[in-house]
Amino acid sequence: YIWPSPQLDALESIRYDQDGHRSQGISVFLEPCDLFIFSASPSGRADSADWIRTAYHDMATHNVADGSGGLDASIRFLEEQSRPENAGDGFGNTITVFLAHANRYVSIADVIALGAIMAVENCGGPEIAFRGGRVDAGEPNLPGVPEPQQDLQSHIDSFARQGFTPTEMIGLVACGHTFGGVQHDTFPDIVPDLHDPGNLKSVAHFDTTFSHFDNNVATEYISGTTQNPLVVGANDTTNSDKRIFSSDGNATMLSFANSPELFASTCADLLARMVDTVPRGVQLTEVIKPLLVKPAAVQLILDGSNLQFSGEVRFWNKTADPNRSVSLQWDDNVGGTHNVSTQASGVSSAVAGRFTAAWYAFNSTLDAVAGITSMRFLVDGKVEDQNGVGFAVQDGILYSKTSCLQSQNPLTGRLDVAVRNGLNPTHVFLEQEVRDSVNRPVVVSIEVPRPAQALAANDAYSLWSITVADNNVGVGSSPATAFTITAEVGGVNITANGGQFLATLPACTT
Ligand code: HEM
């Protein structure tokens, strides 16, 4: 895709800015892969296992016939979590971690999908295609998750309702059950108290590598050494993995045992399909791939007769290199081209170090009248401009530095919006992201009134002002969020680069 695209940019960041500079903070819960943040270690549990099971149980309500259910974060509702089919506290744990990572561009359901993908990828598994655009349910879905005491035919029927064939059922169960196990606390009839100081939560694991993706779930099953509690459990009624794995005469499991590559590629396909199983009508984005050159945190602020321009750029698949020269070049509205050097600002990595990225920061002062239309980067003399498209930077609407804090409690401030002469917006509005009563990120818009008499800020901009209160701080799971400015111009919305938190504004003097 072409930068900027607010939704795809946000999805790309949460997927690929994992560790180090500008970390989005999800992958740390998988470091190391047997980390379990909710009880003392060694617990025998793992965040990674909880996250994969959460994605499956959220999806498993899907009904291909009527399009209902699917991966839509309905698992966050306590009503759904309290059903027998959703036994255990892993769903609540997972949602607690994930809620803070959702935003207006990344739904809670997208985070659930990505959490499962990252657990697999970052813990030894194959790369899995990730799309965004899931829509969070406003209420619980109908029940429909398979349970271990049910017979084979009901499992075949259940997976068919979810959209998977009997062979795919074997695959999906094996792909999931290469992680985690059955807990004594949740299933005391399947797993006894193990009294094991190395496994404090008494989890009987599905294979010997419970926090690592590999085909041991298949090799141990085929070789007869498996300790999988759903295969060799004392009560055969709950040996659902045994019935499922053997349902085709062990052909599928044998193929997985013989080929770790086949197991990995099958799981990459099936798990991608699992997280892309969404209620009918939901339109997913393209597969999110890393942008090789990606601006981030671009800010343009009116400061008297100048524009303060700052931001960063990330170069994918590059490591730090003190000899590299990176400069930023931009075009203005009056035919000029300008150059500024950048400074190395950090490095990041993703997928347990499989990928790295090098970051550079820029900071410059532009003449407000000349403004800016687009930018490009020069890396050791080579032009990076999205294959000639350039990186568009809009200067039509932005914050003015004259914005100020009016009161701390309640938090109120005057936001001065600079509108470029000639832009002629039909509307200007502030947008703030908040959470609705069921924790979905939603955007509240506040119209910025058109001033009766335009107040010139300089030769290029006039100011529109509005006093707003930030009612969002500390509400529910909402982190404090910035106000952003959007202008509707000729039926199209353009959004200012960079948002403004009221709390960080200087106090008003008038
Ligand atoms: C017939 C289908 C399935 C049955 C009956 C089943 C049953 C179970 C049971 C009883 C547990 C133990 C839960 C606990 O003690 O907290 C479990 C755990 C788990 N299941 Fe499944 N499962 C099925 C399919 C799947 C699928 C398709 C996936 C994912 C692709 C999956 C992923 C997991 C994971 C990762 C765990 C470990 C959770 C942890 O250790 O915290 N399961 N499953």
TrEMBL record:
Question: Is Translocase given among the entry's keywords?
Answer: no
SUPFAM superfamilies named among the record's database cross-references: Heme-dependent peroxidases (SSF48113)
Q: Which residue windows are coiled coil?
A: none
UniProt KW Membrane keyword: no
Q: What class of enzyme is it?
A: oxidoreductase
Q: Which PROSITE patterns match?
A: PEROXIDASE_4 (PS50873)
Q: Which GO terms describe its biological process?
A: cellular response to oxidative stress; hydrogen peroxide catabolic process; response to reactive oxygen species
Q: Which GO terms describe its molecular function?
A: heme binding; metal ion binding; peroxidase activity
Q: Which InterPro entries match?
A: Ccp1-like (IPR044831), Haem_peroxidase (IPR002016), Haem_peroxidase_sf (IPR010255)
Task: Give the Enzyme Commission number.
Answer: 1.11.1.-
- Domain Plant heme peroxidase family profile, first and last residues per copy: 29-321
**Keywords per UniProt:** Heme, Iron, Metal-binding, Oxidoreductase, Peroxidase, Signal
Q: What's this protein's family per the entry? A: Belongs to the peroxidase family.
Instruction: Kindly give the PANTHER family that the UniProt entry links to this protein.
Output: HEME PEROXIDASE, THYLAKOID LUMENAL 29 KDA PROTEIN, CHLOROPLASTIC-RELATED
Question: What name goes with this protein?
Answer: Peroxidase
Per the UniProt entry, what species is this protein from, by scientific name? Answer: Mycena venus
The opening ranks of the lineage are: Eukaryota, Fungi, Dikarya, Basidiomycota, Agaricomycotina
